[in-house]
């Protein structure tokens, strides 16, 4: 079926039952090469004593999870290293609200609609000098291009117009979400993955917890988050509740939830780097195991070598150059949905040109859905003055020549209506006063 269609309730209010496509059976040759790739990957980061076990275990984990094909994953074919990908690597991360089968978050047959409540684009620069993480509001109205039908590869789903973003996952699967974000931003997306409730809790456990800051106490029965004001090391289902809470933070909207999610992700980035996780073979294996066990990854990420390469690249990026941005939007007349604002084009252009982004912290603080700087954080001391060196045999001082610094592209300074933060900023989520 081809053609155009006007979306009528492809969001949370009226979603069609999910459809699942048939997976191709992996051949013995493909399995062999997966195993070989895993051995190489683990050899690169681990001691030889655990190579065999880790490689086989990761391959077995990969084979147990369904996969999905993205339209532009072929750009990775024949590329020797992720640093050789022209324009950098863009990864689509989708968080599904599908409930676990054990009923821990409601009846999976009644409360689940398989909506992409979280949609993020992670862009790793080609020279690995900066990373941008762009969050797209779930209630943003978007145009959806024609997409392959995940239930029938011979069929094509029609295009949609002005439909809520969070209904696209159920409409056409991860591949359709990727095509939609590609059309919106002009960025090519070769890789991606979907994570569900259990995966978020497991990841927080695997890294040993993530510290978050609350400016006010939060009591939200809907998400199950009950925390006093101040800093908290959260893990497992508490971390999941923090990421899910919408009514308890900011202005009670999804925009407020995105703002608090960004504080969590910035703290996660600091944790991953400060604890040496990405450089520790044992910890890295644990993270890889959690990711492979709890995510549906696109084909190109089934190769553990690629996962390790991405982890190593992220490890080397300075925290101040990891920027979390909320895609700028404006509300419609009914204050129900949002649409991209004029500033969104600046975000798009920077991503297309592989340029870093810089957010005005005041914009985030002053937004009704924003976060505030941690009031307990100490003011950083100015760097100590370096005394001039004395030339041997003379009393006159000689100003030392500064060491050359690597060339870093200038950041695109975003307008005041674009909110976010860098990973080295500690910000606190505010409670919803309503």
From TrEMBL:
<dbReference type="Pfam" id="PF03816">
    <property type="entry name" value="LytR_cpsA_psr"/>
</dbReference>
<dbReference type="InterPro" id="IPR050922">
    <property type="entry name" value="LytR/CpsA/Psr_CW_biosynth"/>
</dbReference>
<dbReference type="InterPro" id="IPR004474">
    <property type="entry name" value="LytR_CpsA_psr"/>
</dbReference>
<feature type="region of interest" description="Disordered">
    <location>
        <begin position="1"/>
        <end position="22"/>
    </location>
</feature>
<protein>
    <recommendedName>
        <fullName>Cell envelope-related transcriptional attenuator domain-containing protein</fullName>
    </recommendedName>
</protein>
<feature type="domain" description="Cell envelope-related transcriptional attenuator">
    <location>
        <begin position="116"/>
        <end position="273"/>
    </location>
</feature>
<feature type="compositionally biased region" description="Pro residues">
    <location>
        <begin position="375"/>
        <end position="390"/>
    </location>
</feature>
<keyword id="KW-0472">Membrane</keyword>
<keyword id="KW-0812">Transmembrane</keyword>
<feature type="region of interest" description="Disordered">
    <location>
        <begin position="366"/>
        <end position="422"/>
    </location>
</feature>
<feature type="transmembrane region" description="Helical">
    <location>
        <begin position="32"/>
        <end position="56"/>
    </location>
</feature>
<comment type="similarity">
    <text>Belongs to the LytR/CpsA/Psr (LCP) family.</text>
</comment>
<keyword id="KW-1133">Transmembrane helix</keyword>
């Amino acid at each position: 079926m081809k053609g155009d269609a006007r979306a009528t309730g492809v969001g949370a209010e009226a979603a069609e039952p999910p459809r699942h496509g048939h997976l191709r059976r992996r051949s013995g040759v493909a399995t062999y090469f997966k195993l070989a790739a895993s051995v190489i990957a683990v050899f690169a980061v681990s001691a030889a004593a655990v190579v065999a076990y880790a490689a086989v275990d990761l391959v077995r984990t990969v084979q147990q999870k369904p996969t999905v094909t993205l339209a532009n994953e072929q750009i990775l074919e024949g590329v020797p290293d992720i640093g050789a990908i022209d324009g950098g690597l863009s990864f689509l991360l989708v968080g599904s609200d599908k409930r676990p089968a054990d009923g821990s978050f409601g009846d999976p047959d009644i409360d689940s609609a398989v909506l992409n409540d979280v949609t993020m684009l992670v862009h790793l620069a080609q020279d690995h000098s900066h990373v941008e993480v762009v969050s797209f509001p779930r209630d943003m109205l978007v145009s959806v291009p024609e997409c392959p039908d995940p239930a029938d590869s011979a069929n094509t789903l029609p295009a949609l117009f002005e439909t809520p973003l969070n209904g696209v996952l159920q409409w056409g699967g991860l591949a359709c979400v990727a095509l939609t974000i590609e059309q919106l931003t002009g960025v090519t997306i070769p890789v991606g993955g979907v994570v569900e409730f259990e995966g978020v809790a497991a990841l927080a456990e695997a890294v040993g917890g993530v510290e978050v800051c609350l400016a006010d106490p939060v009591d939200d029965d809907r998400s199950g988050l009950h925390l006093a004001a101040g800093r908290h090391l959260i893990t497992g289902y508490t971390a999941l509740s923090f990421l899910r809470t919408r009514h308890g933070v900011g202005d009670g909207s999804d925009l407020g939830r995105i703002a608090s999610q960004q504080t969590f992700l910035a703290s996660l980035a600091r944790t991953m780097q400060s604890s040496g996780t990405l450089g520790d073979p044992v910890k890295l294996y644990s993270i890889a195991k959690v990711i492979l066990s709890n995510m549906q990854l696109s084909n190109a990420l089934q190769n553990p070598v690629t996962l390790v390469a991405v982890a190593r690249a992220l490890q080397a990026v300075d925290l101040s150059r990891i920027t979390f941005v909320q895609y700028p939007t404006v509300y419609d007349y009914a204050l129900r949905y949002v649409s991209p604002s004029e500033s969104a084009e600046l975000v798009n252009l920077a991503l297309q040109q592989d340029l870093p982004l810089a957010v005005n912290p005041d914009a985030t603080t002053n937004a009704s859905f924003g976060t505030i700087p941690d009031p307990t954080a100490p003011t950083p001391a100015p760097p100590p003055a370096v005394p001039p060196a004395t030339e041997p045999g003379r009393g006159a001082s000689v100003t030392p020549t500064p060491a050359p610094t690597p060339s870093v592209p200038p950041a695109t300074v975003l307008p005041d209506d674009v909110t976010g933060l860098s990973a080295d900023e500690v910000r606190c989520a505010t409670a919803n006063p309503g």
